[in-house]
Amino acid sequence: MDILANMKEVQERVAAACKRSNRDPKEVTILPVSKNHPAEDIQTLYDAGWRDFGENYVQELRNKHDELPDDIHWHMIGHLQRNKVKYIASYIQAIHSVDTIKLLHTIEKEGRKADRVIPVLIEVNVGREESKFGVMPDLEDCMALANEALELPHVKLRGLMTSAPYYDDVEKDRSIFRKLKELLNDMNAANDQLQLDVLSMGMTHDFEIAVEEGSTCVRVGTAIFGKRDYSNKGY
Ligand SMILES: *Cc1c(COP(=O)(O)O)cnc(C)c1O
């Protein structure tokens, strides 16, 4: 497994998708998703200059945070239970998976204790899948959270996140990504205090389409680190 070669290929595919859609590659962050992969795989990318990494599970994130260099920017992209916010509040770079007002309030409380403003994204279940977390893709539901976030001084809402369903035909994901971007534009139009500018969308199987549809952050695991080993209980 040559992680650096894989990363180079992902970068090239992002650049090509930007070219096809007349976008500047600088607008698109590649967020390597390192869940279920060992700390040394992260260190490999770190040594090549990468600093931002996405994790799904609080305990695994904490272990890696303790083990790896302090200047890594950790992103929480998985479902987050309220009673675990306190473990990551003092250093988390961004929480991509906010889907309830209660969770927003907990992040506010822990942000206040840590004396910092925590950047967050609202997770939207654009495909309305029963198995997934996230707010329904309706303007009212999203604005209820967004307007609440504006009242919280230790929370900074930056944008929206989604995971598209696993369609066999990835072109179907296009409408999901379009819908998320439309929602972001509608939210900004509904309240000009919002100024949302982050669209966290696109994974290994669909990140090129997500880039073509306006993604500013692709969360890529398998294409960079290889298949996840779920028997790896090291974390
Ligand atoms: C695991 C995960 C990813 C990365 O998935 P790959 O298909 O391996 O690229 C991205 N986003 C979320 C929310 C994930 O849980």
UniProtKB/TrEMBL annotation:
InterPro entries, alphabetized? Ala_racemase_N, PLP-binding_barrel, PyrdxlP_homeostasis
N6-(pyridoxal phosphate)lysine PTM sites in chain numbering: K35
Among its keywords, does the record have S-adenosyl-L-methionine? no
Instruction: Indicate whether Amino-acid biosynthesis appears among the record's keywords.
Output: no
Matching entries from PROSITE patterns are given as: UPF0001
* Keywords (A to Z) from UniProt: Pyridoxal phosphate
Superkingdom of origin: Bacteria
The record places domain Alanine racemase N-terminal at 27-228
| Alphabetized Pfam families for the sequence | Ala_racemase_N
What does this protein's UniProt record list under function?
Pyridoxal 5'-phosphate (PLP)-binding protein, which is involved in PLP homeostasis.
**UniProt-listed HAMAP family:** PLP_homeostasis
Q: Which family does it belong to?
A: Belongs to the pyridoxal phosphate-binding protein YggS/PROSC family.
What protein does this entry describe?
Pyridoxal phosphate homeostasis protein
